[in-house]
Design a protein that fits this description.
Phosphorylase Kinase, domain 1; alpha+beta; 361 residues; 14 helices; globular; Aminoglycoside 3'-phosphotransferase, Chain: A, domain 2
Length: 361
């Protein structure tokens, strides 16, 4: 492996020689290695999963352009955050195709940093809110029409609902019977959950550059739990701010992870929600419109719903998309997300009050 990776490294850094290789396992899509060279330089070398990211040129265009804008923003604002810095090949491209047609990209490694898989303290959630707000503020002036939709319909609730309807018609009969009550819940939410799509289509909320995978593990923290860098720009593409805000709250502010079987343990953590809002608003949030702010909680509900019906769809189809570790895994995940959604509904007034207070509405 070292000889192969050495040849790939030389496409980006001609005179570097590999000293050590460490496989990084925090990501689930690409194959990623930490490379240390003999002169103690460190790089992240990544094999891109072209089954997921079919247009590598478009993917790299989005990632590099957003990274460069963020670097300029942090420098202008005199902020101490880091950004991902992509390295071009000797030919000037930001990806390399090897003889086996594998696609690679390379980044500088960010030292003295760590990933947090699950928030345990308000301060961590606050820092996450700040970093994602800086991402939106840094990219606020970019024209989304000049960027590519890397995964079409990724957070499109209409598309996800169509997929669910198809699964209800053609899915595994026995599974449809087992999941009947959860299918009923999905259908009951249909009209409400299309609200954001309607606002987007009518241009009542602006199209922006969005990250689209705003879990806390996509932020690097320093050793004192201060936010350091937004990472994993693979899904950066045009969207609406509610995708990022909603998915961050869904994944960071739940009292249990999305595989939790005991539904009684699943709820929205109001303390964490307020911390996330305060972190986001600390950046200023002037880049958001009034209408965007008014529908932030709708973003939370919609993103939870999208994940619930995606898990339910995959269960009905016989587990063809998500990796599972036991037979009912996707149904457990769907139940989990519907339970979290019910908790958001139950605490809707509190969530709206916090949002209005923190964002000054």
């Amino acid at each position: 492996m070292q000889k192969e990776l050495q040849r790939i490294l030389e496409q980006f850094k001609k005179d570097e020689v590999i000293k050590t290789i460490t496989k990084l396992t925090s990501g689930h899509i690409n194959i990623t290695y930490l490379i240390t060279t003999h002169n103690e330089q460190q790089y992240v070398l990544q094999q891109i999963n072209t089954a997921v990211f079919t247009d590598v040129a478009a993917l790299q265009h989005n990632k590099v352009a957003v990274s460069e804008v963020m670097q300029t923003y942090y420098k202008t604002e005199r902020l101490v955050y880091d950004t991902i810095k992509y390295i071009a090949t000797q030919e000037g491209n930001y990806w390399y195709v090897d003889k086996a047609l594998n696609h690679w990209n390379m980044m500088l490694y960010i030292p003295e940093s760590k990933c947090i898989l699950r928030a345990t303290q308000e301060e961590q959630v606050y820092e996450a809110g700040k970093l994602f707000a800086h991402f939106h503020k840094a990219t606020a002036d970019l024209d989304p029409n000049k960027f590519y939709e890397i995964i079409p319909g990724f957070h499109d609730v209409a598309l996800r609902y169509e997929q669910l309807e198809k699964a209800i018609k053609t899915g595994v009969s026995q599974r449809k019977e087992i999941a009947a009550s959860w299918i009923k819940q999905a259908i009951a939410y249909k009209e409400e959950m299309h609200l954001l799509n309607k606002l987007k289509e009518s241009k009542a909320v602006p199209l922006r550059m969005t990250h689209n995978d705003t879990k806390i593990s996509n932020i690097l923290f320093d050793m004192e739990d201060k936010g350091k860098c937004v990472i994993d720009l693979d899904t950066v593409m045009p969207g609406i701010v509610h995708y990022d805000f909603g998915d961050a709250v869904r994944s960071i502010c739940a009292t249990a992870n999305e595989d939790e079987k005991e539904l009684a343990k699943i709820a929205i953590n109001l303390t964490f929600y307020e911390a996330f809002c305060k972190g986001y608003a600390a950046v200023g949030a002037k880049h958001l419109t009034t209408v965007e702010k008014e529908h932030l909680v709708s973003g939370v509900k919609t993103m939870i719903y999208i994940m619930a019906i995606r898990f339910l769809t995959d269960y009905l189809n016989g587990d063809v998309y998500y990796n599972i570790v036991y037979k009912e895994h996707n149904l457990v995940r769907a139940k989990n997300q519907f339970t979290l959604l019910a908790s958001v509904e139950k605490n809707l007034l509190s969530l709206e009050k916090v949002t209005q207070k923190v964002f000054g509405m």
